Amino acid sequence: MNEQKHLPPQTLIELSDLLLSSEDWSGGTLYRARSDAIELLAPLIDQTLLKPEASAADVLLFCEQSKNYRFASICVHSYWLPSIQEWLGNHPIKRCCVVGFPSGMIATKLKQNEIQWSLEHGVDEIDVVWNLGAVHTGDWIYIENELKQLLEVSGNHVLKVIFETATLSDQQIRQGCEICAQIGISFVKTSTGFHPSGGATEHAVSLMRQSVGSRCGVKASGGIRDLRTALRMIRAGANRIGTSNGVSILETFN
Predict the structure, then answer these.
(1) Catalytic site includes residue 219
(2) Range with the lowest mean pLDDT among 14-23, 111-120, 208-217?
(3) Residue 38, SS3?
(4) Which residue from 239, 249, 247, 214 is spatially nearest to 12, judged by alpha carbons?
């Protein structure tokens, strides 16, 4: 296994350090640095549209805009998968959907069914919310068993587990990360972006990276609305960024 694929590019970390040290990116070295960073940042972004009130017109526009960037994936609710398959056609951008969203508080069998249906409709990557109630109860056996069953259904597809880190203690984050890394989860992910407790923080991302090392990826999501925040998450250890603001983040370079 190539463990480097689970880590943020070292060059992008160095560029992040350089850019975050200054308020003005308009000239000289910093201007070149931001141009270099866009080449490395775009493929780490899951461009996301998860507002439940989004219409077909909204999702179509979202797809058309996303085609112009080298995002890692576009992430939508599973309901939209047949539509985006039609609208994107043979475009190489990966299709991602959420499962058990946003609470995770449904039966494992229902999550399995949602994953299976999504696979049948062209999904490439799956972001599943774990059972937050079981985590807060301390039922780690349930969590591990559920995730193993979801991995089995997912096959070789990328499976990301959403923690909702703003509700968790450091120990809960560490324990969850260890389970995910041991059983072969592709990414641990901070947040849904919909919980009132908040989204991604540098502390949570750093803790996740320390816990999983290079055994799996770390996705920061929830509240990432600008370039500086995205770069701070990369520097903290994220190698994937989930945001509905991918286009505006990349347009910061222009």
Answers:
(1) yes
(2) 14-23
(3) helix
(4) 239
Does residue 226 carry a catalytic annotation? Answer: no
- Tell me how far apart the alpha carbons of residues 130 and 197 are, in angstroms, rounded to a whole number: 16
Q: In this structure, which amino acid lies at residue 12?
A: L
In angstroms, the CA 56 to CA 199 distance is: 27
Q: Closest by alpha carbon to 249, among 48, 55, 10?
A: 48
Is residue 36 part of the annotated active site? The answer reads: no
User: What's the CA gap between 187 and 196, in Å, rounded?
Assistant: 23
119-134 confidence digits (pLDDT tens): 999 999 999 999 999 9
| Residues 225, 81: Cα–Cα separation, whole Å | 25
Backbone phi and psi for residue 148, each to the nearest 5 degrees, phi listed first = -65, -40
Distance of alpha carbon 213 from alpha carbon 159, whole angstroms = 17
Q: Which residue(s) pair with 73 in the sheet?
A: 46, 94
| Whether the Cβ atoms of residue 87 and residue 113 lie closer than 8 Å to each other | no
Sorted by where each starts, the structural domains of the chain and their CATH numbers stand as 3-251 (3.20.20.70)
Within the chain, strands assigned E span: 45-48, 73-77, 94-99, 125-129, 158-162, 187-189, 217-221, 240-243
Distance from C-alpha of 4 to C-alpha of 148, rounded to nearest angstrom: 24
| Total-model pTM | 0.95
* Among candidate residues 53, 44, 41, the one with its CA nearest the CA of residue 227: 41
The residue annotated as part of the active site, out of 46, 111, 127, 160, is: 127
